[in-house]
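> example.struct
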């Protein structure tokens, strides 16, 4: 489903931003990002640029796409070692739009997906980009989340098992059974749930396509984006997801790996090198890393299957209709778990 600004909503936004000294005069808006989750717009008055972020059109699953929670998280991360945009204003549902939204600073720089920009394409810069990605995760996982005012953001105790159960329910039948094609992976994950490696802020969707790089060398991360899924949980959850989305030469590409094929270029570190760098920096054991990678691929399969069902019923994004997207994640999950059996 699509949404864009109408003359009425754009006029209301102009008034909202003008009242707060953020922008003045007629506004121009441009959709940015892949558009399969929350909607993000670059907004300009001709002199200043800001970014407006709002949920997708209804119906929205309960508890999802909480814009004000996301804005509060960004405020909590301000002035930490993790670079984030600055929150400029928030709006409750009914104040300007029929949904809540927030306004944040515009950070200049490329979002790298399928190719590294020429300004950062030297092999040394590519390597530094990859290393900076994992270093950013290290920095995130070191933040004192209680001191940042984010103590109520999640429930870290029993996080892994609880998250597995909650995600499984999204695609289970009325008797709680997983779809046939999910059954072997779900069983393996359930039988091997590790104890949490700690409790930290986790981004929950950390990959190269969700950061802005500084536009020129030396390579660095200018801002981390898309915090809608962030919570307090096991930090290795982030590491497993990041590595699951990081492509490796010779392996089939999942939909999320396709959004990061720049990482296959000469210079970028391998998954093994990135995992070792994280372990060295944090001292955390990665003995159960394959469980977290498998969980990430299985979780993406669950979310894409949930999206497929919504799209087929006519209430979701048509992008998800292709069943091959789900199969791609399930195949990657089996490979990570060392499973060879596949149903369906």
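> example.seq
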């Amino acid at each position: 489903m699509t949404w864009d600004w109408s003359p009425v909503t754009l006029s209301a936004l102009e008034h909202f931003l003008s009242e707060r000294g953020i922008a003045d005069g007629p506004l121009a808006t441009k959709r940015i990002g892949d558009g399969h989750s929350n909607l993000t717009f670059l907004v300009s008055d001709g002199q200043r640029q800001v970014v407006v972020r709002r949920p997708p059109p209804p119906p929205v699953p309960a508890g999802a796409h909480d814009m004000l929670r996301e804005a509060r998280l960004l405020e909590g991360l301000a002035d930490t070692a993790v670079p984030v945009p600055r929150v400029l204003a928030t709006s409750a549902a009914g104040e300007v739009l029929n949904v809540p939204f927030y306004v944040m600073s515009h950070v200049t720089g490329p979002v790298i997906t399928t190719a590294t920009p020429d300004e950062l394409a030297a092999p040394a810069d590519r390597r530094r980009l990859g290393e900076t990605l994992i270093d950013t995760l290290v920095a995130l996982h070191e933040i004192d989340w209680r001191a940042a005012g984010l103590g109520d953001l999640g429930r870290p105790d029993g996080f892994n098992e609880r998250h597995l159960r909650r995600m499984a329910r999204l695609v289970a039948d009325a008797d709680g059974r997983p779809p046939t094609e999910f059954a072997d992976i779900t069983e393996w994950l359930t039988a091997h749930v590790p104890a949490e490696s700690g409790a930290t802020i986790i981004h929950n969707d950390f990959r190269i396509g969700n950061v802005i790089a500084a536009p020129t060398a030396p390579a660095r991360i200018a801002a981390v984006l898309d915090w809608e899924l962030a919570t307090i949980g096991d930090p290795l959850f982030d590491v497993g997801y990041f590595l699951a989305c990081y492509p490796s030469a010779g392996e089939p590409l999942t939909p999320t790996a396709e959004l990061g094929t720049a990482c296959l270029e000469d210079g970028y570190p391998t998954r093994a090198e990135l995992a070792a760098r994280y372990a060295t920096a944090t001292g955390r054991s990665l003995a159960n890393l394959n469980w977290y990678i498998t969980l990430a691929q299985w979780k993406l399969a669950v979310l894409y299957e949930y999206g497929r069902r919504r799209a087929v019923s006519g209430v979701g994004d048509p992008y998800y209709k292709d069943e091959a997207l789900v199969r791609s994640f399930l195949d990657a999950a089996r490979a990570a778990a060392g499973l060879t059996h596949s149903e369906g």
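> remarks
DSSP finds ten helices and nine strands in the chain.
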